[in-house]
Amino acid sequence: MPNSKPQKLKINEVGTRDGLQNEPIFVDTDDKIALVDELSGLGYAKIEVTSFTSPSAIPALRDAEVVMHRIQRMPGVVYTALIPNVRGGDRALECGVDEFNLVMSASETHNLANLRMTRSQSLTQLADVVRLAHNAQVPVNISLSCVFGCPMEGEVSESEVINLVGKFAELGAVGVTLCDTTGMAYPTQVTQVCEAVLKAYPGLNVTGHFHNTRGMGLTNVLAALQAGVTQFDMSLGGIGGCPYAPGASGNVATEDVVHMLNCMGYDTGLQIEGLIAAAHHLEALIGHDLPAQVSRSGPRLTRHDPPAGFEEIRERAWNREQSKGQI
Ligand code: COA
Ligand code: ZN
């Protein structure tokens, strides 16, 4: 818990990538650009703008180049994108992304379903993409899916996770994102795995990426924080999910997580009012209710009018109190 000086946390918005990739409708390119521009002014450390994946695999983000080129970049914000292979890396470099976010899964089955490669093939590909990025002096983060369980295989072993993170460190990645792709993580597991990764690779930036599929998203964020993780991915409105992971649903909602962390005294750099306004804009774009809570309820000190007839209730109560006092 923070004491005198608030602890600074880095908040990464992934709604325009993890979020929109799982929406059935194609959000208009201009609307995507306007949304990223709105988010840019809110105080995020990083925005995952889009993904340079195959347009047949992720049709919702087939406009990656146009979006990346036309957003207004705010100094201090890192603009990243998801990249599955060398082709994606080439496309991202042409758009001048600030960071590559590469991806592979800790589960063999999910890696095959999502990327159509074995994990061993993915590692070879990753090395090629890292080389490409490093030649262009672009830093690399690697998102590891299904760290806390796989919807097709079940448990994923912690030693396998540590082993893969070690390979990413050897490749020269500056960071790793531990992804709970389908909300299978639970708090004690999160603390244990995050502590183990931080201890084994203290030089890596470790980011927590949780989905709220089973309602444990916020507690998992706290568990990761307790383990020493200070960077988190989250998605405005709580939308999101991997289309190639059965049962996937939304990320932890940015407004819910930031609301909690701000209440607890952490410095997230984000104000809740701006997030709520952006969430309402997003809701209008995707045309359905958001899973998030705080964009509907408002922050905890939101004041409501008392019920109808309240004046009369109060007067009667006061009168009773007074007549009692006179006895
Ligand atoms: N960008 C654009 N097009 C790409 C591409 C990329 N990064 N990578 C491959 N393609 C194209 C190929 O040119 C080919 O096109 P064609 O059919 O018109 O010739 C087609 O996609 C298939 O290429 P191939 O190399 O055989 O890829 P694949 O079918 O084995 O798919 C991936 C591999 C990784 C490209 C694909 O599975 C993918 O994009 N997955 C991303 C999944 C994802 O983002 N999940 C959610 C996030 S975790
Ligand atoms: Zn995700």
Automatic annotation (TrEMBL):
The keyword Transmembrane helix does not apply. Its EC number is 4.1.3.4. GO terms for biological process: ketone body biosynthetic process; L-leucine catabolic process. GO terms for molecular function: hydroxymethylglutaryl-CoA lyase activity; metal ion binding. It is an enzyme of class 4 (lyase). Pfam families: HMGL-like. Residues 9-276 form the Pyruvate carboxyltransferase domain. It comes from the Bacteria. The keyword Nuclease does not apply. InterPro entries: Aldolase_TIM, HMGL, PYR_CT. Keywords: Lyase, Metal-binding. PROSITE patterns: PYR_CT. CDD domains: DRE_TIM_HMGL (cd07938). Belongs to the HMG-CoA lyase family. PANTHER family: HYDROXYMETHYLGLUTARYL-COA LYASE. This is Hydroxymethylglutaryl-CoA lyase YngG. It comes from Achromobacter agilis. The lineage of its organism: Bacteria, Pseudomonadati, Pseudomonadota, Betaproteobacteria, Burkholderiales.
